[in-house]
From TrEMBL, chains A, B, C, D, E, F:
Originating species: Pseudomonas rhizosphaerae
Molecular-function GO terms, alphabetical: amino-acid racemase activity; hydantoin racemase activity
Listed EC numbers: 5.1.99.5
Protein name: Hydantoin racemase
Pfam families: Asp_Glu_race (PF01177)
The family this protein is said to belong to: Belongs to the HyuE racemase family.
Record's catalysed reaction(s): D-5-isobutylhydantoin = L-5-isobutylhydantoin; a D-5-monosubstituted hydantoin = a L-5-monosubstituted hydantoin; D-5-benzylhydantoin = L-5-benzylhydantoin
Signal peptide extent: none
Root EC class: isomerase
Length: 244, 244, 244, 244, 244, 244
């Protein structure tokens, strides 16, 4: 099985780190192809960054479909371009936020999300609503560290900052599990879990595992209705290659 | 006052028709600048088309901000790129779906939407949910005519097809007003209204009027929180010009 | 165009102040007729005051319809008598709470409301739910000043009290705009906005502008269904003149 | 115990019929005082009728409080003036719609409402939402008979018309009980129940019984918060007697 | 009238205390039969305890139906086995949580719940959602005392602990009434009410009164649809006697 | 890895069939232990059957935990005893309804459920609400075949009956995938899918795969909060062995 893991931003080091987490989750019998767009923002911290990054995600999914990959992961916590990407593929397309939410809801009655910037909290809140998970989440909490600073801060300090928020959610809101709300935290679930005594879910691993499950079950994106292949039409300019 | 009206698809004739409707709504003291992206799909009929078109919308908003326009309209019924566009502008940014929904909710307790393709119904339903308008809408109905065929069909036949759905909504669901769910229907509200005996709202006119209202009130997009200007960062490749 | 602005309480000074705000918003080409009921409470601070004031609102709308006014504003933040008033009129009828909520939702993803008394918070919360705006509001906050004391307190002190709540909503709840929750605050949006750095919406101005928009678009209250003119019937006693 | 049953319209025959149903429900140890306002509409079939009738309800509640009655019933299916009336009384105030919904939800997982006019369906739907009962109701169905024609139609024909709708709800929507949606149907629950084989709830009886329960438990309207007695203030004109 | 009051746990002293409260509520003309299962947990403090206790509840309801009792009360705040028990009986079956919520919603616009353990808060929250009462509740608060320690603590201390939470809900959340969230608090409503100045509802009394109301109205569980008698089938082992 | 698959009813043939489906899904490296309770109903077709069956489920989970199984599946579409079972186990506990819903929501924007009896539709609807999946489901449809007749009917006829409902959901409601709503349909997804041209999800396979995923990720039920091990206490009678 070949699973394409798309980091929607253009950061090579984050792509590598996400690839590592994905491979660790996937196991030896699945080939993980980690990639990121050629064109787009180096980090995603708002609605605008997301909208531009979505195009890169779609380009990568298109390449992945052409290469015959079996499933496609969108490895940014806002799941940019998810429904659009599903139109392009017959295989499953999974966002890391949705994957993490679904998994968390199997482990506890209420989970909390710890993400990077307060500015992007609304993105997670909109996804919780859209996926039907709002009632299952006690709060979306932020460590207020920019995505690209996650690496420079160092894991020790980052774990501490995440744990601080997670413990607040556990002790004051009754959260029974923690969702890590950024692809750049994919290396940390074990350490945070040890620190806070709760199951901690990284969306990258969760999405890879769910993609494997769907492929193994012979299930893919519904090609009936709004997720059918895009209607053939003329695209102009830079996007001309999308036309058909 | 200068109001930029962006047709998110690349159809020149639809841009012209939207521009006419916008100018008719705006009145003589407001300059309407109708435009469409250089790059993108010639019609928008699904999640994928929307995601690509959103980039064109953002390019146009960016140009419009640089040109000092006072407000920006996204004239496709899925409101593609709306929150992202708001990050780019201090002036108001209004989608025609949200404008039509808000206006309709001031005229009746329940309205219906008549749009083009069954395939895109989910897009309108998601917007109704996201804007808090789901309970105010009896149904989203479709005439099942492709966007680019709206013009070739001819207004008479199109009015008839829309009226057929509108009358169903009026007589069987209690809809008190009709929202036209496509920028390509911007010329038709008066004729449909005469035919079905209900207020009929075209989102292009509604959005232009709401934009004028906000500008005249001295109100613009909140620059505090998630709609503040995008954080400066490196963008690569085709999107390099977005970096800062 | 003639827009009737109805202060539902009987305070002459508040009627005058609301009229000033309405005229400032309406501009020179629209005639604003500010009025208040002859009969009813001098301020509205609860469900009971609202229910009585609604009759005065309906009497005024009736007079306004007879006088040929084009639109009708209900200038109390509970929108008393709104749906009933819509039955009486073919022109638009707009409440200042609904107008403010709709406008605020175009400027930010989450707004806060600052109103007068804790006692009336539930009224605003019910309206937010009824209009589909509950998810778009972070909280309804109260300065705990009686409506008639708003004037005696003085604008400086009042702005300070409002700003105190608004800053809490901005900094701790992520509110991106502030809705002023009382017709008696209609003079203050600019000063509060300057103080807190957010868009601030006064419902009186918002309602007048929305009414103008609807009239200019040729739109009025749907006369099909539950907002059709009241069924003719006998009314007895003090309300005999409502019969037909 | 003395329970005041207020018919919000001015129809004497309907007041008598409601009083009969109330007395039958109340039993011998409770005195039922059936009354209706001196002033107001002779039937209630829309938002406007409701708003005017609410004043009459409040006048009657005020008299009833002065007379020392223990509880107050609002016997029109829209529960007009309910929260306002609660401000006036320390004893319980119960609307027949809310009473019927609560009782029905104890008997089945989904009930249906059969009311008079299609025009007023929205009123019942709003109440279902406001009381948290929307999910427990399969539909609000209408026999499309004017309130005052209920009497002239004759019970046989009326039972048949109600049963027709009730059977549709039972067989096609899975409704397990039927709520009669009009004070003018208070004599019919037994006959409709026999006809459709489901529990049938009349709100007048339900409200009287719930009021007795609350009084016997020593419970009354909370006088803390938004249902405390109205704040003393000046009322002018026809409503001057409400001031204090 | 004979009302069966089932304490779902096996504590004899709690059964006695619940019986006392039920008899006080029921009055002299109703016979209260207080009972508890032979088999099951001695207190109910979680989902597991509830699931086991539900069987005991069903056994008791079955005996109660055979004995010709007119109504059945499930006197544990999680309402364990409620829908299942309704299948067994033609008479009404009422849970004390649902009874308390319905009664509270007739007295105020927002109530609070004070229950025993933080661990069981989710059970009350799920019920509020299931019954449509979530919006009517400000919060579920816990005194963090184990059910069986309620008795040893002594009423004075217990009232104080409950009042502490109730006052927080009253003063900081606007709660207008308090629901006691445990059958073991059935003796306390008067004392807590005196202490906090709000109506206080004990579910045992509320359920008994509602059951009487339904029986007196000739209403019982709908035997059409999902609450019809269980389909006859083979049960094996310890549960063989349930087969038919 | 050892996964315990619990058929909550006592039918040996259904246990065998569920075991086959589970093994087919689990693959060679996972040992599937299919079992059913000794005591309980031979099929589950209502709230009562569910409540009794839940005890059998808990007994089996308890044995499974003692035997060191890594995960536990509840293979009846009502997920009986799910939260209670989670209290007993550190490993994951998955219901087949929740598994199927989660998987379906990854493949389409709206799915439909086809289950056995109209009587049990409410159970699926309650689960959809409880899991946050109601908006993602177009309808719950029933073939109206008793659970134990599924086998005697024969697969051909059963596939046809399911397909009939599925095609209605696909063509009239826009369903993009079908969830099979009964453990007794676990053999059929491929045949139904071929017949209706949509992805078809069997919950048994879905639950087994999700359980494997969680175990492989090192995730289990949160032992903090309401899913912690049951508080030790005395159980009497037939349930004495649950005490501690």
């Amino acid at each position: 099985m070949k699973v394409q893991v798309i980091n929607p931003n253009t950061s090579q080091s984050m792509t590598a780190s996400i690839g590592r987490a994905a491979r660790a989750a996937a196991g030896p019998d699945t080939q993980v192809i980690a990639c990121c767009p050629d064109d787009g923002p180096e980090s995603i911290e708002g609605h605008f960054d997301e909208a531009i990054a979505a195009v890169g995600v779609l380009e990568e999914v298109r390449k992945g479909v052409a290469a015959g990959y079996d499933a496609h992961i969108i490895a940014c916590f806002g799941d940019p371009g998810l429904l659009a990407a599903r139109e392009l593929a017959r295989g499953p397309v999974i966002g890391i936020a949705e994957a993490a939410f679904h998994v968390a809801s199997l482990l506890c009655t209420r989970f909390a999300v710890v993400t990077t910037l307060t500015r992007t909290r609304i993105i997670a809140e909109h996804l919780l609503r859209n996926y039907g998970m709002a009632e299952h989440c006690t709060s979306v909490r932020c460590v207020d560290i920019a995505v690209l600073e996650l690496e420079t801060l160092g894991d020790d300090a980052l774990v501490e900052r995440i744990a601080e928020q997670a413990l607040q959610a556990r002790d004051h809101e009754g959260a029974g599990a923690i969702v890590l709300g950024c692809g750049g935290m994919a290396d940390l679930p074990a350490r945070v879990s040890e620190r806070v005594g709760l199951p901690v879910i990284d969306g990258v691993a969760a999405a890879v595992k769910l993609a494997q499950v769907l492929v193994e079950m012979g299930l893919g994106t519904s090609k009936h209705g709004d997720l059918a292949y895009p209607l053939a039409k003329r695209f102009s300019g830079r996007f001309g290659h999308f036309g058909g």
